[in-house]
Amino acid sequence: MKRILALIYRKLYAYFGPQYWWPAETPFEVMIGAILTQNTSWSNVERAINNLKKERLLSAKKLNRLRPRRLAALIKSAGYYNIKSRRLKSFLEFIFKEYDASLEKMREAPYTKLRQQLLAVNGIGQETADSILLYALGKPVFVVDAYTKRIFSRHKLIDEDADYAQVQEFFMTGLPRNARLFNEYHALLVRLGKEFCLKNNPKCALCPLRDIKKDRGGEE
DNA sequence: CACCAGGCAAGTA
DNA sequence: TACTTGCATGGT
Predict the structure, then answer these.
(1) Which partner from A5, A21, A32, A92 sits 20 to 30 angstroms from A143, CA to CA?
(2) CB within 8 Å of A159: residues ≥ 6 apart
(3) Is the pTM above the cut of 0.85?
């Protein structure tokens, strides 16, 4: 395994501690949140999720019965509400059709197959699919998001225009294939990203990884 | 006011 | 394949 990956993990964990991800009460809530948070701040997603909870609608059956217009109104705060309403509907249609909306059945399926199926659903791309696999179903896939790319390219550990699959491979070949580790690692990267590695780069000098290069001995 | 946030798909060349 | 654009709210 690449030592730098383990070193960064230890540094982040020592600095921030465990993140207890994904912030949701149930696996189903994780799946809905994964779609709602696409290119959107989490605080806006929380309002939308809370609306659904308040109306007792946060279940596959209830959401499946809901008219798209009504769903869109409930998730308004998450932005792109018309498109996300459709995406949620597409996702629900898929889980009912292929898995009887059963978490158990989804867990039983080989996750490589499930990943392919998820990617075929309109509105589910690689990050959303992997978030569902890892955080809702506990499958050992590494989630790559904007923070992951930004942090690692700023530290010159990956090419800045590496695509999703390349970044994912970097992590998955460099770490033991362990869902618990992938879970905590990605959560720590998001935490780091929010506090130290925003796009306009506010606190780079204070970043806990600022001298990561000095800490590693000459390996890859 | 401008810019950004835990993406994705559809259109164009 | 490789760009470009639309989608939209709420915070800074």
Answers:
(1) A92
(2) A153, A166
(3) yes
